[in-house]
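Re-run with default settings, no changes from the original entry. Doing this only to confirm the output is reproducible before filing.
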Amino acid sequence: MSVDDYSDNPFALNADDTAKLDAIEQALLDPSPRRIAGLDQWGLADTYEVYAEIAEYRALSIAMADGTMIDASLSVPRNLAPGQTCPAVLMPAPLNDYGHRAYLPMIPRWSLGGYAVLAYSQRGLAKSTGEIHVAGPQDVTDATEIVNALIEIEGIDPERIGCFGASYGAGTSLLAAANDPRIKAVVGTSAWTDLFASLYENGTRHLAAFEALVKLFKEERCSAEFKGVIQKIRGNIIDDEVRKFAGDRSPRNHLQAYNDSRVPILMTTAWHETIFSVPAVIDMFTELTGPKSLLVQIGDHGNAELPGLFGLVSKPTEMAYRWMDHYLGGTAGDGALPQFGVRSEYMHNLLSDLRHADWESYALPKQRFHLADAAVGERDGQLTADKPQPGWTRSLKATGRDTEAVVAPKLIQTGLYERAGLPHSYKTADIDRGLAAIWTTAPLEQAMRVQGDLELRVTVTPRATDATIVAYLMDCDPATGKAHIITNAPFTVTNEEPGQATTVSFPLQPAHYVLRKGHQLQLIIDTHDQFYADANRAPSTVDLTSPQGAESYLDIPLSTLE
C-alpha cells in the first residue's frame, strides 16, 4: 500500500479554526460589543460576553533571568474583595505555531470556575524568544520563574496553584511539578513519561514521529544540544549523550519527587498513540503512590482532548476541571468528584466507559497462543492454545518496502477516524507472504475482549548481522477479508555476526479491543514499516523460527465479553 507522507504537519489547524482563535484573542484583548459580536458565527458571543463581565484578560511578556522573553497571557477574576484570593492554573503550551493561544477557548470555563489562568509558550516556541530545549532543565527553571511572577499578582493564592498541559505542555507540566512544590495538582493530556522509550522502542527508532516533531519545533530554533541529538538519532548513534538528553526530560525519572510530595497527577493517553510510549505512561502511573488517575481513550496523540481545548466537552478536559476543583477549590467542573484509578474506552466505541481501581485490576489474565506451522493446503500459520509448536521456519524477504500492514497510514489523523468509528481497513489477504508471515486463530465462538498487556516471543535469524521485525495484531473478519489493527510493536536484533539465531520476547502496545463472534485474531510479522527506522540490509532474508525449548508464542489478555 502507499503510506501517506509522515512529514506533513499532523497538528495543523484548518482555516476556520485559525480564524476562530484569532477572533477569540481579539475579543479577549478588546471586549467591545463589535469584537464580541464577531464571534457570533461560531456561536461564542454569549460565552465571551459573560467572560468580559467576570474576568480580565491581558497579554504578557515575562523576562527570564537570562533575558529570554516568554510570551504569555493572564486572565484574572474581576472584583475580588479586599484580601480575597483565587486559585490559579499555569498552562504551558502544546507544540504548535499558536503556542499558548491554543488554550484560549478554555479560558472562559476556568474563569467561570473562579480561576486565574497564566498560559505561556515555552522558550523558542511561537512568539517566545530563545532556543527550544524540549522541556529540558532550562524550561523547568523557566516554569519556576513564571510561578514566581504568578504569585506576585494581587489576588493569586500561592497555596492553590495547578498546572495543566497538553502534549508538549503535559511533559513541561509534569517536570515543573517535580521541581516546584508550589504546584499542588497536575493534569497532563497526551502525556509522556519516558522520552527515551518513546524515541527508541525495543531497540528501534520511532523515526517518523521524531521527524514530525522536529519539523514542528523548527530545527533552526533548536538549541545546539538538541540539534546535536537530532543528528545522532538520525544517524542511529544512541549513546550516553542521547540517553542523558532523554532522561533529563523524562518525568518517570522524578518518581521519588512525586511520591515524596504526593502531588495529585492525572494523565491521559490513547490506545493507538504514535508519538509517545503508552507502556511508559502506564508504568509511571502504576509506580505513583500519591493521588492519581489515568484515562486511556480511542485514537492517537491529542485526538480525545481536542474538542475540550476548543472550548467544547471532552473527557480529558472535564476530568481536568474536576481534578483542579478537588485540589484547588475552584468550580470549573460539574461538581462531581474526580475519577481515581484507571478509566478507559475500548476500540472503537466512544460510548464505552470502564473504570478500575488500578492497572492490576484492569488488565485481564493472559492466554497463551502458540505460533504453529500452516496446516496442509494452507498458506498461513495458526495461533493455537493447544501446546507449544516447535520445528517450523518462515523466511521473510527484507526489501525496505512496506506491506499492507502499517502502524497507521497517517500520524494523528488515522486516530481521529478511529474516534469517529471509521478505523482503517487492512486487506490482509493481499499481503505478499514472501514479505510477511501470518498466523490466524480459528473463528471465535463468542465475542471476546482484549484488555491489557501483550507479549510476543519468537526466534529471529537474520542472514545479515542485524534485523528489524514489526509485529501487528489484527482483528480479521473472514467474511470480508478485511482487518483492523489492535496493537503493534517493533523489535531490532543486533548481532555480532550474520546467521545468528536470537530468541526475543517483547511487549506489544497495551490494548483494549472488543472482537465480534466469528472474527479471528491475526498476527502479522514483517520487516519494514515506514513509521520505524529498520536495521535490515536490503535485500536480505530474515528467518523466523520456533526451536524446541524456546517455542514461539503470543500472550494476549483475553476473555469472553460479559
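The chain is about 25% helix and 30% strand. The chain has two domains: 84-361, 366-560.
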